[in-house]
Write a structure and sequence with these properties.
This protein has 128 residues and is mostly helical. The chain has seven helices and no strands. It starts with a helix and ends in an 18-residue tail after the last helix.
C-alpha cells in the first residue's frame, strides 16, 4: 500500500501529461513545454524511489538524440536565434511545427503475435 501511495502522490500527474502529449495537432513548442514541466516535477525526487525514477527518466531522454534537435527546431520556430540542425533546410524546420514528441513502434510487439499490424497497434512497449 505504501508503494501505491507513493506513486499516487508523486507520479499521479504522468497519466495526464501523457494524454496531453498524445493530443493531435499540438504545436512542437507546446509539446516540449509539457515535457519540460514533467521533467521539472520529477527534478526534486523524494526518497530513494524518486532518485531512481529521476535517473531513469534522464537515461531514457539521453537515449533519444533527436530530442535536442526538436528543442533547436522549436527555438527557431519561436523566432529565437539558433543555427539550423545539421542537414536541415528552413523548409524542414517549418514542416516540424506540429511534430509529435511521442511515438509508439508497435511492429516489434506485433511480430510475435498472429494479428495484423493495425489490430495490435495499441500495444505499447516501454523501454523503462
Amino acid at each position: 500500500m505504501a508503494d501505491l501511495s507513493y506513486i499516487a502522490s508523486n507520479l499521479g500527474f504522468l497519466a495526464g501529461t501523457i494524454m496531453q502529449l498524445e493530443e493531435a495537432g499540438l504545436p512542437l513548442a507546446r509539446s516540449l513545454a509539457i515535457l519540460d514541466n514533467a521533467k521539472e516535477r520529477l527534478a526534486d525526487p523524494l526518497g530513494v524511489k524518486g532518485k531512481v525514477l529521476k535517473e531513469k527518466l534522464e537515461k531514457v531522454l539521453k537515449k533519444n538524440p533527436s530530442l535536442e534537435t526538436l528543442y533547436r527546431v522549436s527555438k527557431i520556430l519561436n523566432g529565437e536565434a539558433c543555427n539550423l540542425p545539421e542537414g536541415m533546410v528552413p523548409a524542414d524546420v517549418a514542416e516540424l511545427k506540429y511534430s509529435p514528441v511521442t511515438s509508439v513502434d508497435a511492429a516489434p510487439a506485433c511480430s510475435c503475435l498472429p494479428l495484423p499490424a493495425p489490430a495490435c497497434s495499441c500495444l505499447l512497449l516501454l523501454s523503462w
